[in-house]
Amino acid sequence: MNILFVCTGNTCRSPMAEAILISKKLAGVQVRSAGVFAMSGSEASYQAQEVLKEKGIIHAHVSALLTEESVEWANYIFTMTNQHKKLVVERYPTAVGKTFSLKEFIGEHGEVSDPFGGSVHTYRTTFDELQTLIELVVKKII
After folding, report:
1. Of 7, 12, 32, 124, which residue is the catalytic one?
2. Any catalytic annotation for residue 128?
């Protein structure tokens, strides 16, 4: 099973989500992340890296722009916001039916909070939110 997490710049939320799911070491599950407006080749934000280190998660991340290849690769595409979902399915019609906002997929409303530009504390809050959501996603798909 191939899971793709998508956010805006692929330096905050989607890399943390990717790292969280990879850290679960689920057999047969491959994980990637991308951004709808990413500059390919950037590291995860300093704050995201710090929070992952605090949680004992080692993740060497390099940002990537969402591509048709990554959409085709994925069985599930989980976005951080409804707007991200809309952009994905508008750009890539083959993404329809396998693209969901994280909260939508587990039956909740709303969006994953955006820590961009915030403190490490703000990133911790987003990490905790993502961890809870991903645990619920795993229960649903595995």
Report:
1. 7
2. no
- d(CA 80, CA 138) in angstroms, rounded, equals 16
Contact 110, 6 (CB under 8 A): no
Please give the pLDDT value at position 142.
Answer: 83
Q: Is 13 one of the annotated active-site residues of the chain?
A: yes
Sites in the chain below the pLDDT cut of 70 = none
pTM (two decimals) = 0.98
d(CA 35, CA 57): 21
Catalytic one of 12, 13, 32, 128: 13
Please tell me which residue in 12, 32, 91, 114 is annotated as part of the active site: 114
**Cα end-to-end distance, the chain, whole Å:** 10
Per-domain residue ranges of the chain: 2-137
Name the CATH superfamily housing domain 2-137: Response regulator (3.40.50.2300)
